[in-house]
Give the backbone structure.
Amino acid sequence: MPEPQPIKHHVMAIEYPGRLVEISADGQLLWEHQTPSLTVMFDVLENGHVFYPHGGAQRGAEEIDRDHNVVWSYDSAAGELLGGERLPSGNTLLGEGGPALALELDPDKQVVRSIPVATSETQAHGQIRHVHRLPSGNVLLALEGEGVARELDPSGNTVWEYGGIAKIHEARRLPNGNTLIGGGESKRVVEVTSAGEVAWEFNAEDGPELGLSFITSVQVLASGNLLVCNWLGAEGGVGVHAFEVTREKEVVWKLDDHELLKSATTVTALD
């Protein structure tokens, strides 16, 4: 039998602090775009456009086409804005900090819903990373400074939470009702049940060769494997930028080109 071919991924990544890059499966730079200010996450939309929130010195969100034209934008008066996603309805969900809000806007930038987010973190920059709308209408947030994944109803009441994850970056609700967490400084990807029990995890001890530093984005691939981003810090580092891991904890793909990328905060497979 022929040897199985190695896994390769066509990806998009955001290099800290704000350079979007598209990389072919054979490691070639296909496209790049500089965002207006600090950007740590993005969505590639069905039409090929890219949506991203941006914070730091200039807070807001943009949708761009591949010719770098801004086709939608929002300017925020909040103290920080790093989290958000484009919803299937065409509305936009944003995680603003200072004050902490889960803000939904329609395409005309009118406020559809504004959910107050209770968090013990007082600094705007550390309040919200990823925010996702759940089928129930609730929102699931990664509250970085507090180290908590928290689900809120439309009135801002806490429905569920899981804490103790230092500098949590991502929390995704899985079809089985569990929550998948990108564990920031804990250097863990962890799946927890609704009862708060750990169903699965992958940590620095499971992959010592990866140089895990700060776990950010986690993408569930069609195979069921996970594509995980490992932020190496503002100045970069020697570990991998991203890796694919099976549920049996076998690492089957790595992105570790340090000439092309210094330090990524989100890596997404496009294939």
Q: What stands out?
A: The radius of gyration is 18 Å.
